[in-house]
Every structure is written in C-alpha cells, then in structure tokens.
C-alpha cells in the first residue's frame, strides 16, 4: 500500500480492494497535483507499458526480461516488467524504496526461488538462454553470473582463496591457473597493488571498501556474462564508494553490469543506461543522461528532481 508520490506527507494510503489490487486513497489535504493518467492506472492495478527510449533498440543485449511478474504470497511486487540489458555497459536501476529493484535483480540469478512464498510468471534470457525454463540447471546458471551485495561478504579465508573460490568449487586444481586468475581478477578489481604482498592473509582483516572490491574480484574471477550489483556502496564511506565507482566504470566494455542503487548521483556518474522503477513497474528506461536531464515522463522527472521517493 502506498501514498501517492505527489501527495503531501499527511496524505495516507491505501486500502486493498481485493483481487491483488491496491486502490490509493488519499486522506487529509488534497495532493499538490492530480495524479497523472499513468499513476491513476497504476493505482487501479493496471499494467502500463514502459517508456523505453529508442537507443536501447540499437544495443546488443546480454539479458532480456520478458513480461516478468512476481508475487510474495498474495502481494504482487513486479508487474509485467520488460527490460533489455545492454552488453558491455553499466545499467542502473533506480526508484523509491520498495519499488522492486532488488526483487528484479534477485530474479536474474533465481535467488527468489529460495523463498517458498514467491511465485513468478514470465521469463528472462541470458545470452538467449531461458533462465526460468523447467529444465534449467540453476547451479550452472548461477556460474554464468556474479553477484555483489550491499554488505561486503568475504569468506573467512585468505584473500587468495576468496578470489579463486568460484574456480575451486568448479574443480580447478592447477595452481598456475589459480594464480593467474587471482592476479587478473585482483587487477581487474583495482586491488592487486594493495594486497599482492598479503594474499595469504585473512580477507576479514581488510577495510570495508577493500572487502567490497574483493567481492567484485571474486565475482569476476569466473568471467561472468553479467555482473549483478545490489547497492554495492551502501555500506561504504565516500572514499571507498569512489573507488568502487571507479572500478565499476573500468569494468564496462569487458563486463555487462546491472546495478541497483538508491543514489541518483551514483547512477548518473557510472551508468550508460538507467531504468526508473515505481511500484513494481518499469516506468522509463533510456540513456542515463536523458533520464536525468530530459526524461519523457513527468513521473521520472518528479523522481529524479527529488520531488518524491
Ligand atoms: N522476502 C520478502 N517477502 C515479502 N515481501 C517482500 C520480500 N522482499 C521484498 N518484499 C516486498 O516486495 C516489494 C519490493 O521490494 P524490493 O526490496 O525489491 O524493493 P527495492 O526497490 O529494492 O527497495 P529498497 O530500495 O528499499 O531496497 C516491497 O513491497 C517489499 O516489501
């Protein structure tokens, strides 16, 4: 249940009208502006097409989300999301808290499968291969992607073993291969010079920012087809955040990155494309500069100029 985004703070939302729909009811003072047709349709639970900028059609896509719907129990969290993620670029997902960004990201590596209450319809493809087809081997699928979470989660083992972990669990034993991958991944994660003399020390002794770059090194060790980043800087200080942002920009070209961020400056600094989500819908999707300076939808404009969210 949500308040209308343009409503004043004392306007309270909403009551369920059954059938999975939420009708927005505004209490207190009237909203500053009437809801747009689009927001009114959303409040009636309708599916609305996203405003997708034509530049997306010129890209090659690593990941395609097709009519994806997701429910947590009775509550629908994603509504017919269609989103194509370009290859070799950084794509940011922005939107107010609870709009479904992390849920969508977790659908890519099927982490939501771990929750009994989740029901999913629609599909996604990774380089043309279905992610949700019945015969998909989820373990194999997950090896094709890397994921980094809000809080750094190094394993309680050495820096070296953290980085080569994806290869170890895949049965790689050749020390030369492991050494090469360790160095390449740490260089790729802009961490090599800082840790090359202490590879056998525990990763838990690193700073938070270093730990997060280590997690990125681990995520790229197996050369994933897509790198999923769920607010990777939210637990970091500004200096560590800057280093991770520099790193993400260095990764583009070689890796396809899909990042969830609350931080609009961050999205504008590091991404080529930005997807604006709202209430489980993809609202607008296009080149980052256009989304932030010349969006097509009033709702996007309201959000990126800080009028709600
Ligand atoms: N495990 C869960 N069980 C039930 N509902 C959930 C679960 N996870 C998320 N939700 C609900 O799904 C909706 C989308 O949540 P999600 O975390 O994907 O949003 P978000 O945009 O990533 O938010 P934030 O920016 O705050 O992380 C929210 O209404 C949330 O309460």
TrEMBL record:
CDD domains xref list: ABC_PstB_phosphate_transporter
Keywords: ATP-binding, Cell inner membrane, Cell membrane, Membrane, Nucleotide-binding, Phosphate transport, Translocase, Transport
Record's keyword annotation contains Cytoplasm: no
Record carries keyword Ligase: no
Domain of life: Bacteria
A GO molecular-function descriptor: ATP binding
ABC transporter domain span: 63-304
Region (Disordered) residue spans: 1-36
NCBIfam families documented for this protein: 3a0107s01c2
Protein name, as recorded: Phosphate import ATP-binding protein PstB
Originating species: Alienimonas chondri
Gene: pstB
């Amino acid at each position: 249940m949500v308040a209308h985004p343009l409503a004043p703070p004392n306007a309270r939302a909403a009551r369920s009208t059954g059938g999975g729909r939420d009708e927005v009811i505004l209490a207190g003072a009237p909203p500053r502006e009437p809801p747009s047709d689009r927001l009114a349709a959303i409040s009636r639970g309708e599916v609305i097409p996203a405003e997708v900028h034509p530049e997306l059609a010129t890209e090659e896509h690593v990941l395609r989300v097709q009519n994806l719907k997701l429910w947590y129990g009775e509550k629908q969290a994603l509504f017919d999301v269609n989103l194509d993620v370009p290859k070799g670029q950084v794509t940011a997902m922005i939107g107010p808290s609870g709009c479904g960004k992390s849920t969508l990201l977790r659908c890519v590596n099927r982490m939501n499968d771990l929750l009994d209450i989740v029901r999913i319809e629609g599909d996604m493809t990774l380089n043309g291969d279905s992610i949700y087809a019945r015969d998909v081997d989820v373990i194999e699928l997950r090896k094709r992607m890397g994921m980094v979470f809000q809080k750094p989660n190094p394993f309680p083992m050495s820096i070296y073993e953290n980085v080569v972990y994806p290869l170890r669990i895949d049965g790689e034993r050749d020390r030369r291969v492991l050494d090469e991958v360790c160095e390449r991944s740490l260089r790729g994660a802009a961490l090599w010079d800082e840790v090359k003399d202490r590879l056998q020390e525990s990763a838990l002794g690193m700073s938070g920012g270093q730990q997060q770059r280590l997690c990125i090194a681990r995520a790229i060790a197996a050369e994933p087809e897509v790198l999923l980043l769920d607010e990777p800087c939210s637990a970091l200080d500004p200096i560590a955040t800057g280093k991770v942002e520099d790193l993400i920009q260095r990764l583009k070209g070689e890796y396809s990155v899909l990042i969830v961020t609350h931080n609009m400056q961050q999205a504008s600094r590091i991404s080529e494309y930005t997807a604006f989500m709202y209430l489980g819908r993809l609202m607008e999707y296009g080149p980052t500069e256009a989304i932030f300076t010349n969006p097509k939808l009033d709702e996007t404009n309201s959000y990126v100029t800080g009028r709600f969210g």
